Amino acid sequence: MTTIESQHAGGTALSAPFFFRGEVVEGAGAVHRSRDLGVSFTTPEIDLDRAVPLRSEVPPLLDVALDDIVDFLVEAGQRIRDPRSPFVRDCIDRMSATHTLPRAQLEAQVVGAAGYLDKRVLHAVVEQNFPDPKALDGWVPKRDFLGRKSFVRAFAPRLIHVLPGNSPGVAVKSIAQGALVKGVNLFKMSSSDPFTTVAILRTMADIDPEHPVVRSMSAVYWRGGDAAVERVLFRPQYFDKIVAWGGGDAIDNVVKYLGPGLQLVSFDPKTSISMVGRQAFDTEETLDCAAGLAAEDVMVLNQDACVASRFVFLEADEENADRFCDRLYRRIAERAAAAGGNRPLDSELKEQIRTLALLDDEFRVWGATDGTGVVIRSEAPVDFHPVGKTVNVVPVPSLDEAIRHVGVATQTVGFFPFDRMPDFRDRLAAGGVQRIVHLGEAGPSTVGNPHDAMYPLHRFVHWMVHEDGAAAIPIGE
């Protein structure tokens, strides 16, 4: 048992330090409780003066070449992946007490996310987000058809990042993206993970505490909705945009502070689904394959990720649907056993599932509520949000029927068979879906692709125009 684990077992509150532009700040000025597990942790009192970047200051990264920023991020990625990293080891020790994911998955998340800090990946992200990446390094000259000249720059923004609690890997990507756009960044950590962001920034400061990337980053924690903090920080005098991840309550809380000069870039709550066609029943081998692929999508981050499937719309009659459900449950249970760290479902969800199990005419339930997996077959989608390795299979006479169940909150659709995807993608997009993938591939994503129907980095920056005032050419000449 590590020192941190011993402290937690003995009832001592964990310490979650802050980071202000290269300096780590320890303290126990405030006591908080983690969202999911109710574990106590302490933080320093927030020094709002240190958290607020002055408008009179030129952003530290403004005149640093993008290539130099990428090189620094790549070096940081190598340090994060080093198993001897004291900052990452300490982070995992602490986060294991506050987070619902098993320790092995937390380690895989943090170290795996460091793969984003790869030169090819980072350049691909920039090139996909910006038609002309030169706009990040300086003023790009333009001339319109009338002969008017101007210069355009993707100017360094001032960003507050409201980070999610379900995926510690998002901290790595958010830091990298904040650096790529040369922003001044304040990261609001979550109560489930008030550790990863500081661990990554400490790793960077260990390379060079004066590097402009390090001096562009701060990370703190406060309880979401704390008006004493948010009334001060969420102002256009200090920040341009709030980049918010999280559930509906978190997004709604941010929205009330928006106004002229302070915008929201929202990665708001999403639900993902699967669509499985009748071809899954062509052979026993095909059925096994489709069930296994569907289980892969359910089990992304133990079903804590937005991309994790929660509903499977299955082109089948009831008899075949039950065959699929039985195999799907077994595949989920196998993966749950391999992952370990299973937590029982909360009492409300348990009661809902137990009630459904009694309604044999409309529902059938496979599995148990002990966190090892549940599959519910029903004539229509259940009216609650399946979590904790719980998935709802809805038989439909045709996948065309499934389209009426998608909306703007539907992020990813895992689809089988693959050759039918082109017939559905336009209709899914019209319904609000943002992404369609092969069944079983909800987790991986093509480098640089849009996220939540947008190119995020393009939204982050402050697009500035310098009109040169050249004489115009009259139209028609």
From TrEMBL:
GO terms, biological process: bioluminescence
A Pfam short name: LuxC
UniProt-listed SUPFAM superfamilies: ALDH-like
Domain of life: Bacteria
Enzyme Commission identifier(s): 1.2.1.50
GO MF term set: acyl-CoA dehydrogenase activity; long-chain-fatty-acyl-CoA reductase activity
Catalytic activity: a long-chain fatty aldehyde + NADP(+) + CoA = a long-chain fatty acyl-CoA + NADPH + H(+)
Keywords: NADP, Oxidoreductase
Protein family per UniProt: Belongs to the LuxC family.
The protein, known as: Acyl-CoA reductase
